[in-house]
Amino acid sequence: MKTLNLIILSVMILAIISGCKKKETTEETPAVDNYSSIGAFYAANGAQLQTFTVTATTGGQFTTPQGTKVTIPADAFVTQSGGNVTGSVSIGFKDVYKKSDMLLSKLSATTFWGIPMKSAGMFFIKATQNNAGLDLNPGKKIVIEQPLFGLPVDTAMIAMIQEGGQDSIQGGWVPSPWDSLTGTLSGYVFSLYRFRVPADSGTWCNSDNPNYFTGPLTHLILHPLDSVSVYNTDVFLIFKNVNSMVHVYYNSTDFPYDYAPLGLECTVVAVGVKGGKLYSSFTPITITANLTVNFSLTLTTTTAFLAQMAALP
Hints:
Blueprint: H1 2-26, H2 38-45, E1 50-55, E2 60-63, E3 69-72, E4 77-78, E5 88-96, H3 99-104, E6 111-112, E7 115-116, E8 118-129, E9 132-133, E10 135-136, E11 142-147, E12 158-162, E13 173-175, E14 180-183, E15 187-192, E16 203-209, E17 217-224, H4 228-231, E18 234-239, E19 245-248, E20 255-261, E21 265-274, E22 277-286, E23 291-295, E24 298-300, H5 302-311
Parallel strand pairs: 17-23
Antiparallel strand pairs: 1-5, 2-3, 3-11, 4-10, 5-8, 6-7, 8-9, 8-16, 11-15, 12-13, 12-16, 14-15, 17-20, 18-19, 18-21, 21-22, 22-24
């Protein structure tokens, strides 16, 4: 009987120890995402390239999950040497509307000569056949209808193009000399008449109001309290209650921005990756003259970061 009691007692002790260990594990810091680099973070969470297929001689139409409607006319494409195109054509397409998606896609900014703009949405388009980029046939246009998402039409919106035409926006936006934009009751109609050169790089376009921020501007310094090289830190300004985002670039000591609209509210969002883990900071500010803002990164998860981004007005 003593032996049996000892066995039962031993089992109970082991169960208690096991339970304690299990509880200790659940109280540890939740597992964070494992990213090989900050670029891997953007690749996993930014706007993904969608691929559609149309027939060159008849054209076609498709609608993206975000509600962007793209209409391609018959005989819309030529080769880069000007030759006729027949058969199937692949259309690579991205559409970006929300400020959070702009940040997660690491788009540079909605700016014109450095000054912020109000955006109604941007898109990337690339036509290929047998992996070779195609040009638009002169006189033909691709019509991209962008939804309003319940917002009123802004009649000051114009068609903008990105200098350079690369898939990762690094240059600025400029008014398009050949494309056009029309506001309707259902959205903005972007008429695209020409791809950027080279065609293999694809084309970025944006519907913007370049005169939305008309007040005085000031110099803003965003100062990191962590090593930028260790965290590979990126910094963005997310403006309150307006669809505008600015990617602020590092100058070896700080993240300076010379075109900050005086008196406006925004959030300084910083994000980085160290040791495979995600770090971030969210700092709400009101822009005052020659303001310096310090920020420090803390450990986070993708889920938490996305929730904070979604909560920004």
